[in-house]
Amino acid sequence: MQEILPNASQVHQKYMSLALLEAEKALRNREVPIGAVVIHQGAVVGRGHNMVETLNDPTAHAEMIAITAACETLQTKYLHNCTLYVTLEPCPMCAGALVWSKIPTVVFGAIDEKSGGCGSLFNICENNNLNHQIEIIQGVLELDCSEMIKQWFKSKRL
Questions:
Q1: Can you list the alpha helix ranges (DSSP code H) found in 75-127?
Q2: Closest CA to 142 of 118, 112, 108, 114
Q3: pTM of the model
Q4: Where are the strands (E) in 26-81, listed by range?
């Protein structure tokens, strides 16, 4: 009997749901609710959520924390054969770190029109002038991802 494999959309939704759980952790800590997970061979090898306020560190973005955790887990500086799932399009700083990590694929939920580094404002990940390009998949669970962020910012304006 042949095993029925889930289609790519189902796989992406499964892992984006894990990134959303990370975003909820950020929300509980009064951080901008962005979460990320790094997947390697079907397993989570790195997780992160925004910790900018908690750590008083402007570089403590979900992606940066997830990259560091994945590199530590895999004992490598390169994330070959991995995929990053993140609830919001990575900023230029995070996009640059992803290029340096040589991760092949980034999947994100919501577009960041004000500081996106993966296609909306800048396209660092697919820039042919750099030594590595990343496949970008956008819009996975986009409504869930964007709604969480919109509600957070709305609550801050009240």
A1: 92-101
A2: 108
A3: 0.94
A4: 35-40, 43-49
Whole-angstrom CA distances from 148 to 1, 2, 9, 93, 100 are: 42, 39, 21, 22, 29
**DSSP three-state, residue 134:** coil
Of 156, 158, 112, nearest to 138 by C-alpha is: 112
Active-site positions? 63
Model confidence pLDDT, tens digit, residues 73-129: 999 999 999 999 999 999 999 999 999 999 999 999 999 999 999 999 999 999 999
- Residue 35 CA from chain centroid, whole number: 6
Start-to-end CA span in the chain (Å): 57
Q: pLDDT, tens digit, for every residue of 18-57?
A: 999 999 999 999 999 999 999 999 999 999 999 999 999 9
